[in-house]
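Contributing new records

If you add data, match the layout below exactly. Sequence lines come first and carry their own label; structure lines follow with theirs. Keep one chain per record. Anything else will be rejected by the validation script.
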Amino acid sequence: MHSILREEWGFDGFIVSDCGAIGNLTARKHYTAKDKIEAANQALAAGIATNCGDTYNDKEVIRAAKRRTYQYGNPGCGLPHHAAYDVP
């Protein structure tokens, strides 16, 4: 998403997940994440800034962000590494 949407097309807005899509990363159908914390990490690394659902608002995810064990953005994803800490 980052290289095409942001770099090629110059999109500067927010990317929103489909409702429930980030939580579905932990479901059998998709199963790319072991828990909501890992699902949120994957979504943010992919550039999903806004979650239509409850994953980013989950108490465990918020606690992990505060402990900085929630690694929003990795160097290659195009999301600022400080993104987790700019959100109130």
